[in-house]
Amino acid sequence: MKNKITLITGGDRGIGRATALCLAGQGHKICIGYHARAACAQEVVDSIRQSGGEAIAVQADISREEQVVELFKQIDTQLGTVTGLVNNAGILMPQASIEQLNAARLATLFATNVGGSFICAREAVKRMAWRHGGQGGAIVNVSSAASRLGSPHEYVDYAASKGAIDTLTIGLSLEVAAQGIRVNAVRPGFIYTEMHADGGEAGRVDRVKEQLPMKRGGQPEEVAQAIAWLLSDAASYVTGSFIDLAGGK
């Protein structure tokens, strides 16, 4: 596929930002989807453009269906038909045990982490599928090692939302394989990103790294390389698969 147009939700920081820069370097036209950090999103766009790439930033709250629909319309107009989707946007609430959770927190977290990924995938499939005149494409869902480990005493709700993303990956990969669309996932864990501060412990990776077989945390760029490979033609026979990036945990 020559003309690659890729949306990265949550592309303004962390793994999303690293993925945007990596893919732009490989010739992808990039849309940075972002929720609130407009300046950060624009900085990524500027970096890509300064390196000779093409990129735009579009604000959208992916927990709002109408905003996701408008996000894809903006890509249609400004870049062209999307061929790649990185479902990266997600939220992390402050660390809590099950006894501290409430329905409002769960609704907010699942609306973004699960609902948003589903609706983004829906809009992408509508454009990629051969039956709709699309040229096929690839979707990479950013899950988490938490989906396997459960994150007890800290983020059981977040872990459960990523478990749903794992199931989405498997089911959707089977549903759209015959339409020229591949669906895979990465499961990062213990990566140095700003998200840990959202959970109330900015230094979490340094606290737990000695418990990891590799004895170190990971960098966003290491995850970005895996995402880029799954989106690439080199992974043309890979679908419904997972790459774990958690230092052996």
Architecture per CATH nomenclature, i.e. the level-2 architecture: 3-Layer(aba) Sandwich
**CATH class category label:** Alpha Beta
The pLDDT mean sits at: 95
What is the number of helical segments per DSSP (H or I, 4+ residues)?
A: 9
Assembly context of the chains: single chain
The CATH superfamily appears as NAD(P)-binding Rossmann-like Domain
**Helix-strand category:** alpha/beta
Please outline the helices and strands.
Blueprint: E1 5-9, H1 14-25, E2 29-34, H2 38-50, E3 55-59, H3 65-78, E4 84-87, H4 103-128, E5 137-142, H5 146-149, H6 156-176, E6 181-188, H7 195-198, H8 204-208, H9 220-231, E7 242-245
Parallel strand pairs: 1-2, 1-4, 2-3, 4-5, 5-6, 6-7
What can you tell me about this protein's structure?
With 249 residues, the protein is of the alpha/beta class. It has one domain: Rossmann fold, CATH 3.40.50. Helix content is 45%, strand content 15%. The protein is built from nine helices and seven strands. It has a seven-stranded parallel beta sheet with strand order 3-2-1-4-5-6-7, sandwiched between helices. Strand 2 (29-34), helix 2 and strand 3 form a beta-alpha-beta unit. Helix 1 (14-25) crosses helix 9 (220-231) and helix 4 (103-128) packs parallel to helix 6. The N and C termini lie far apart (35 Å). The model has no long low-confidence stretch (mean pLDDT 95).
Features:
45% helix, Rossmann fold, 249 residues, 7 strands
